[in-house]
Design brief:
alpha/beta, Rossmann fold, 7-stranded parallel sheet, two-stranded parallel ribbon, 9 strands
Length: 278
Amino acid sequence: MRGVDRPIAVITGASSGIGASFAEQLGARGCDLLITGRREQILRTRARELKERFGVGVQVLVGELTDPAVRAGLSDTVRNLPRIDWLVNNAGYGRGVAFTDDEYEEQRSLLSVHVEAIMELTHAAVARMPAGGRIITVSSLAGYGVSRRSAVYCASKAFATSFTESLALELAPRGIGVLALLPGFTCSDFHRYEAVPKRNRGIVRWMPAETVVRAALRASDRGRIVCIPGGANRLLYLLMKLLPRTTVYRLMSGGVRKMLAGDTGHSSSHSTRPHPRS
């Protein structure tokens, strides 16, 4: 896979959306790529396109990160790489189903992707990462919020952000940069509703995935620890942090939740059916 003296980037959930944009923009920076995802045909087509466009090596690993064996296999693959210059923990999905209405195993699987996969892969990658290496974990503004239909999702994203911030302090003496990316409304498969137009409305401002990724890479280049791309998203973050929690509870239980979803009845980040995993 690796060209002479080219950096190596490992990206999970690279089939589409934010993960695909990371693969494209890191490929443009001259990185050889190890990309993972569930949708084999899409992933292999993307790999061919990346090779042709940027002349870099691309290795594909297809698998479901809810499976412990797949996570272990990916971690072993990472440990056997000569080095890792970029790790992007992007894989994730939402259920959009109340915790007590869903099958427990489905909720546990969501947690395994958003928590265990990040921990396992990061632990493996750091062992192969030299000074100057970068880790970017895609979290969410939902980690600062609450949702009556996404309890585990919100909690897992709170973990992802906090874990990444602490890891940034831990790895700084080794010269490794660590960034938590907290996107809001992004045009990607995660927000793929056939009946819901992606329109700006009030505080809702949709961002292209490539814009979100450019902001993340720019923040990482500058040594930032947290990146919230877009002025509207930063305003939403401030509101969630500054408003009394009792007010947040009332808002997220009522009309604001519908407004954030574009008056569709869906929550701001989740469909009432499972999202496709990247």
